Amino acid sequence: MNFKFGTAINCIDGRTQEPVIDFMKQKYGIDGVDMVTFPGVDGVVSSLGNFNTIALIRNAVAISIEKHGSRIIAVVGHFDCAGNPGNREHHYSQIGKAVQQVSSWNFDGKIVGLYVNDNRQIEEVN
Ligand SMILES: [Zn+2]
After folding, report:
1. 86 C-alpha to center of ligand 1: Å?
2. What is the distance in A from the centroid of ligand 1 to the CA of 1?
3. What is the pLDDT of residues 68-89, one digit of tens each?
4. What pTM, to 2 d.p., does this model score?
5. pLDDT digit string, tens, across residues 104-113
6. Rounded distance, CA 124 to CA 126, Å?
7. Which domains, from first to last, does the chain contain?
8. Terminal C-alpha separation, the chain
């Protein structure tokens, strides 16, 4: 079996899962996405507090990278997020900061920022 994994750090929001999976499979030639979810996760990972939650997220991503061989990590924010309310610019800013934070974890992989817009389309943030 050569199932190719990717990784997404995504909101719990049920509107975001399928667009992210479809986009990542198409764009990165992977077969499936390990989904690490937390409400409003772009806001959580981009902030300087939340050490415990960020540690849990990092541990989950580490399993995907180290055990599943994922080499692509997407950090996702989205329109109408209940866990992290704000407009598109708010999310773009936090997704950018979250990508920097995840980059500092030094995993062997590419890190990208994605925004799921009000048409459930994926916008590449970085
Ligand atoms: Zn959300």
Report:
1. 10
2. 34
3. 999 999 999 999 999 999 999 9
4. 0.97
5. 999 999 999 9
6. 6
7. 5-124 (3.40.1050.10)
8. 32
